[in-house]
C-alpha cells in the first residue's frame, strides 16, 4: 500500500469546481431521467433510462437531494417530485420489492425527503417500506434474507454484507414510530453480520448462509467477488460504511471498532493512487479498479472519523485517507475529460464474474462521489 498519507484539505475553489462539475452533469441529465432512472451500470459509458424497478433506482433521486442541498434549483425540485411519485407507486403496487434492498431504495428517497422537508407523507412512506423489509426477517436466524422468495431453499437464510446499508431504514422506523421491533431486528442482523460475515483477519465474506430451522451458521460464499475466500472490495466498502451507520444509530461501540478494523484492512490493500481494485485480492496489475467502492469507503471513513475522539490518531488518518481517495477520484476517475459520458465516475465494476458493468460508470459510485463532496462542503446528516 501507499504509506504516504497525502490528504490535502480541499480549498474552497477546488471543491466548488468539483461540485460545479457534478451539478452541471446532473442538470444535463434531468430531461433523460425525469420519469425514468439511470440503469445500474453504463454501457459504453452511457446510462440507459429504465423504469423504477431495480435495487439501484434510488441513487438518482439521492443525487438530486444532494444537489438540492448544494443549490435549491427549481428544475431539480420538479424532477424530485416526479421521482418521489414513482417510489410511492412502487411501494403501493409492490414492484420489485422482494429484496432486502428496500433499505437502499427508501433511505435515499423517503428518508432523505423527510430529513430535508419534514413532509409526513415521506415519513409514512419510509415506515411502510420498513414494514416491507421486515417481511424478510428470519426470527430464528436473526437475519434479513437478501434475495429471492422466503421459501426458496436456494435463497433461504442467505445474508449478504451489503445489507448493512439497508439497516438504517429500520432504525429510522423505530425512531419515528416508537415501535422497537425494527430496531431490534436491525441490531440482531448487524450482530450476526459481525459474527459470521466478518472474518478474523478483518476481511468479509460477501454472503453467508444461516440455517433458518436451527438458527445456526452454515457457510460463506461469494457472489460478486473473485473467490469464496477473497475479499470483494465493494462488500468491504458496504461493511465499513454500514457498521459505522449502525454505530451512529445505536451507540454500540463494537460496531465502530468493527468498522475501523475493516477499514484498516481495506487501506492496507490500496494501490498507490488510493483507488482499490474490484477485489482486494489484487493490489497491482491489469485487473479493473472499482471506483464505486472507493467512493463508498471515502464516505464511510468520513463517517467513522466523526465519531472518534480527537485524541484518537485514527481520526486524522481516516480523514486524510478519505481526502486522498476523493482527490484521486477527482483528478483521474471523473468524466471531466470524457464529456460524451452521462456518468460522473469512470472505472467502476458492477459484477466481474458475470462480466456485467465492467470498467463502466455505476450509478451508486456517482451517488457516493457526490455524497463525499457534500460531506466536505457542509455539515451533512446522513440520509442513511
Ligand atoms: N448491492 C449490490 C452491489 O453492490 O452490487
What does this molecule look like?
The protein has helices at 12-29, 58-70, 74-92, 102-117, 120-134, 167-177, 181-197, 233-250, 253-268, 291-307, 313-332, 363-377, and strands at 37-38, 49-50, 137-138, 143-144, 158-160, 207-210, 217-221, 348-351, 356-360. The strands form four sheets. Strands 5-6-7 form a three-stranded antiparallel β-sheet, with helices on one face. Mean pLDDT is 97; it is low at 1-6. It contains twelve helices and nine strands. Helix 5 (120-134) crosses helix 6 (167-177) and helix 6 runs antiparallel to helix 7 (181-197). The two termini are 30 Å apart. Strand 6 and strand 7 form a beta hairpin. It is mainly α. The structure holds glycine (GLY). The site of glycine has 3 residues, from loops.
Summarize this structure as a short list of keywords or feature phrases.
single chain; 384 residues; binds glycine; two-stranded antiparallel sheet; 12 helices; 9 strands; globular; mainly alpha; three-stranded antiparallel beta sheet
Summarize the structure.
Helix content is 51%, strand content 8%. It is mainly alpha-helical. The protein binds glycine.
